[in-house]
Amino acid sequence: MSTFMKKNWFICLLIVALAGTSCYVIYDTNKGKLKGKSVNGSDIVYSVNDVDYTTEEFYDQLYKFSGFSPLGQLFVVNLCESQETTEDMQQFASNQAAQIITNYRQQYPSTYQDLLNNALRSAGYSGYEDLEKYVIDYQKQQKIIHDYCEEHFDELQIRNVSYILIKFEDEASPEGEPTLVEEIGLHEVDASLENGESFEDVAKQYSQDTSTAYTGGVLGTIDNQTTTLDEAFLKAALALKEGEISDWVYSSNFGYFRIKNNASTPESLNAFVNKDSAEGYENDPYTDLISSYDTTLTGKAIWAKAQEVGYDFMGDESMETQLKTFLGVTE
What we know:
Blueprint: H1 3-19, H2 23-31, E1 38-39, E2 42-48, E3 51-54, H3 55-66, H4 69-81, H5 87-107, H6 112-122, H7 131-151, H8 153-156, E4 159-167, H9 180-194, H10 199-206, H11 210-213, E5 218-222, H12 231-239, E6 249-251, E7 255-263, H13 266-273, H14 287-293, H15 297-308, H16 317-327
Antiparallel strand pairs: 1-2, 2-3, 4-5, 4-7, 6-7
Helix pairs in contact: 1-6, 4-7, 5-6, 5-7, 7-15, 9-10
């Protein structure tokens, strides 16, 4: 289970609470009271001032006020329910749920249960009592994404990269014509690498990108669908073999890069990402990729799993199209 997940459940749940809607509160409050009641063959899901509302009316109102997002969340929840729950998932969920409750109770002593109720209902669950299920389903979703990444690893050209940057002195120099100051920086990097210093140490000493220099130049895990990186940088990074270091790559946006491919197989990627992990903890090697560089992968993985398990839309092409839009899936 990833260190990221272990450290960020509280924050993730708060995000869910802020992003969700309150429509589920009405549904959950009334579903037990109206069990079995129907009108013209349609189930009654809630009642207001003695006026009954059917399933169809509920979803019409849900879509009218909240858009398709709540139904998309329910789709993901239902898909997760179709996946196996392992003992490890259950144990982790139990521990994590207890920690979440402790955190909420400390910060919101008198309202923590109401806050958790609202957060979980907004995510498509019944409420407080589904906290463990929420954690389990989140793990299942992460596994679906992880498995999809591994299955399409070569197709996506997934790899973890590091870089050293020598910035332009004042403004972009013509390609192949570095200034004297830039030339000195390029030479210092080249000389250090030729003398056998590690890429990590050279990046820490000479890279002029302070956001990555302190990590030894590690950018993270990327793929060929990454759209947030400089085009020249991405093209060069994807062309490298594992362990290979590029020549200087000119970027008119930033300066001069030397790039290293740290890992480009599932096994080496997992080993690189977890080389500094504490014993007993394992980072998911695709966390960087799906959260920062290829945010389309989550939707693609969920949709692919739905097709695999035979999710049937019963001929409702509109529902299928809207779900694909919600997930960001294109043919």
